[in-house]
Amino acid sequence: MNKKKGTLYIVPTPIGNLTDITYRAISVLKKIDIIAAENINHTKILIRNYKIIKNIISVNKHNERTKSKKLIIQLQEGKNIALVSNAGTPTINDPGYYLINYCHQFEIKIVPLPGPCAAITALSASGLSNNKFCYEGFIPSKNIIRKKLLNNLKKETRTIIFYETSNRIISSMRDITQELGADRQIVLAKELTKKWELIQRNTSINILSWLENNKCNIRGEITIITSGFQEKKINILPKTVLNALQILQSKLSLKEAIHITAKLYKISKNLLYSHITSKK
Ligand code: SAM
Description:
By secondary structure, the chain is an alpha/beta fold. It has helices at 23-31, 40-49, 64-76, 97-105, 118-126, 143-152, 169-180, 204-213, 239-251, 254-265, 269-279; strands at residues 7-10, 34-37, 55-58, 81-84, 109-112, 133-138, 159-165, 185-190, 198-203, 221-226.
């Protein structure tokens, strides 16, 4: 008779605050046979907190391929395994890709648990359009590649999520400001769920100048969210209005010309102003 295969559980863990773990995650960690963890010591601290003692095997970006093959044998022999990373949801810029793909290949049951993820936590607080978004992972560290990526994202209309480290945040924000525009809405989410949690929303130029003025205080884990590209609205005004504005402008100050045109045609002064500035 064929031996019953085991199950691979994907178990998200806290992104800072140790209490951000679900009842189900704890109960899974208690009942499985092996924990496949990105960092053994890191995971030991977490499970000790919940009085869990387990056999932990390291699966990190350096040994992922070979370790995953060994874990598949254990799963085929009926062992249940929980995949965890150092923080958040495994495989989201964390190890797990190979193990999960082998599970599909060898028809091993995969049970993913919902739980913490920095990208989604930051997005939920961003106040930016959340119905459509894209996740770009870490911003490339090399200048040329970073600029190229940002340039390619210039016309992306969905909200964009990036991961970044504190030592590169200023150079990345400089490039974001340059490539996506100084008036792009940015949400800087730092140290989410931790003591020094900070969520700032402003234009990219203002976030950049805040970062430049607070260099020494920028430490910790950072998620950046940018608003998507929006076509600038072009004001369409009737020709008669535009002609009147033009004639008045040639004889009067801009302020007076706008004032009279607005009165004559019952049009808002702001609309006339933005028409003129959009022409410059
Ligand atoms: N798997 C994780 C998840 O589900 O969010 C992401 C792991 S990735 C290696 C680590 C990056 O996630 C950090 O460099 C940072 O950009 C982001 N991050 C992780 N924890 C965070 C936190 N508490 N606050 C803000 N960003 C965080």
